[in-house]
Structures are given as C-alpha cells and as structure tokens.
Description:
mainly alpha
Amino acid sequence: MNVKLLHEYNELLVSYKMGLIYLDGDAKTEDKEKWTGKFQDIVKKMDKILKEIDIEYTDTEVMEGFHIEFRQAKFKKYGK
C-alpha cells in the first residue's frame, strides 16, 4: 500500500469537496467557468490515484477519505 498516494488522495478530496461547494453555490457563472478546469484536474488526479493504489477500497473511503495509520519511528541521536 502506498501511503503517500492515499495521503495525496485525501488532500485532493478536501479540494474536491470545496470545489463542489463553490460550483454549486451562488457565484457568477463567469467565475465558476474559471475554476471548472481546475476542478476537472482534481477529479482526474483522484481517479488516477484510485487506479494506482494496490488495495481494495470502499465507496465510503472514496467519498470520505482513507484512514492512514502512521507508526512512530525511533531515530538514533547523532553523536551517541
């Protein structure tokens, strides 16, 4: 499992949700058109990541994000 890709997906998901709110909102059509391309790029990147990750995922994970567990690493102190 590529944790970096899952983290990147989660970050894109936040942008995706913010984009949905903006594009569904009361902004002027001209302003929305400026951001439509960027929104489409976000969706394409999310789709690419879903194709690249090597795990089975649920619809819930796709729409709410992936839970990522990080393990604390112990590092040796320099000079000791």
